[in-house]
Amino acid sequence: MPTGGSQDHKTLQRIDFWLIKKSWQPAKGNPHPQENNVTEKREEKMRKYILFIPVATFIICLFVFNLNSRGEESLFSPKFVSSPLVQKIFSFIEMNEETIIKEWIYLTEMPAPSGHEETRAEYLKKEFKAAGLDRTYLDASGNVVGILKGESGGKNIILSAHMDTVFQGVWEIKVKREGNRLKAPGIGDDTANLINMLWSLRTLKQSGFKPVHTYYFLGTVGEEVALVGMRDFLERTAEDFDILLALDGDLGKVHYGALGFGGGKIIFRGPGAHTMQSRGVPSPNLAVAKALERIYALELPSQPIDKWTILNVGQIGGGRVRNAVSQESFFTVDLRSADQKELEHAQARVYRICQEVASEVGVEVEIELDDTARAYRLPGGKSSFLVQTTLDILEFLKVRDVEVNPLGSTEANAGLAKGILSLNLGRTYGRYKHSLREEAEIDGLFLALKQILLMIYSLEQKYPQAP
Ligand SMILES: [Zn+2]
After folding, report:
1. Measured in angstroms, how far is the CA atom of residue 363 from the centroid of ligand 1?
2. 4 CA from centroid of ligand 1 (Å)
């Protein structure tokens, strides 16, 4: 705005004037008057300074602005690790490594495909109780909830790991141990983090930890089928939650956003006809072909990562026989984006293409597009205190292959959708997840466990004040 601009200009001029006046004061403790040539030299010098002042002011402004734009501060300090409590926590983990591995194997060999989590739920409930949590129960959806109460005025924090696996119909699981690796379906996703959660709370109780915040430990159902367990829990709960830490994903992968999901199903319909009478009859198959060509020609951003968007046509079909024009043909679109605006933009373009093609070919179109899973971003994104704290902890633990992006698809998504500060913490290093030859590394599990405990310790020390 012009008024504001000239105001700023005046202020700058005033500052310059003040600086000039100040720099023209004779040096203290010099009683002798200056000779003319010395004065001239000094004035020359001053003029250079005067020129330099606006530039310096500008540089300082840039610097200050840059500091601010760096965002929130990490809560973690490497000093925490020498505290007696953290020392106790770490040595408890180190003492119990073999027991932890045994229980990890035991729990993995307990099948729990989505919809069949009861056995694991019973086990967790029993162990939550035995660990001495303040309250433990199974909710209406089948989630196990264990509460560790803090002081009044503390925050409400959820830590969740999902009990279900993608392995429908696999009722016999045998874990193979080879050196630093464990191999079995579900060994990593997310049984490793169920173990991390269980041992986090046992460790905290054993070490005499008295929390400021209240912690809700959740073993959830149905994560692999659209996060149903967590969504139900957040829908029904009367509590207000401040933070949700989803224990899921590989160690070192940090997602400061929830990937948005779009796409849907598009169906073209026409009158149909025998091939012999098909001249000029509008073909739904042709409409599918034209639409696909245009949809695949859409340019979707891959950079910057905050706008990353992708689509895929996974299914296509139509017509019943070879010798007739199809009456109905369809295809599906799977559309994903880190950014809600990009998602909606791509969605709108798919919609428009299908309508244009329908009118060009002369068929009817039914477009069922999905807009239930929106894209969300953790407030502050990459520079939020939760991300900064996690990154500092990962660096301290020397976790390798750290990746930070907004492409999360864990239970943190359900938290972000409810306005809760949500982030995922990985379980261990692993590979081949969602396949029968899934593998997980043993060493990584202990790092992940320490990561969770250091996060809790950091949140306890200095939760940021609301601005
Ligand atoms: Zn998972």
Report:
1. 42
2. 52
Output the CA 345–ligand 1 centroid distance in Å. Answer: 29
Q: What is the pLDDT along the chain (467 residues), one digit of tens a residue?
A: 333 333 333 333 333 333 333 333 333 334 344 445 555 556 565 566 555 555 555 555 444 444 434 468 999 999 999 999 999 999 999 999 999 999 999 999 999 999 999 999 999 999 999 999 999 999 999 999 999 999 999 999 999 999 999 999 999 999 999 999 999 999 999 999 999 999 999 999 999 999 999 999 999 999 999 999 999 999 999 999 999 999 999 999 999 999 999 999 999 999 999 999 999 999 999 999 999 999 999 999 999 999 999 999 999 999 999 999 999 999 999 999 999 999 999 999 999 999 999 999 999 999 999 888 999 999 999 999 999 999 999 999 999 999 999 999 999 999 999 999 999 999 999 999 999 999 999 999 999 999 999 999 999 997 877 65
CA distance 449 to 354: 49
Distance in Å, CA 284 to ligand 1 centroid: 39
Tell me, in angstroms, the distance from the centre of ligand 1 to residue 162's CA. Answer: 7
**Segments making up each domain of the chain, as ranges:** 3-18+32-69, 78-258+375-461, 260-369
Ligand 1 centroid to Cα of residue 445, in Å, is 15
Task: Name the pTM for this structure.
Answer: 0.80
Domain spanning 78-258+375-461: CATH superfamily: Zn peptidases (3.40.630.10)
Residue 278 Cα to ligand 1 middle (Å): 51
Fold adopted by 260-369:
Alpha-Beta Plaits (3.30.70)
Cα of 18 from ligand 1 centre, angstroms:
62
Give me ligand 1 centre to Cα 410, in Å: 7
Find the 103 Cα to ligand 1 centroid distance in Å: 19
Give the Å distance between the CA of 220 and the centre of ligand 1.
11
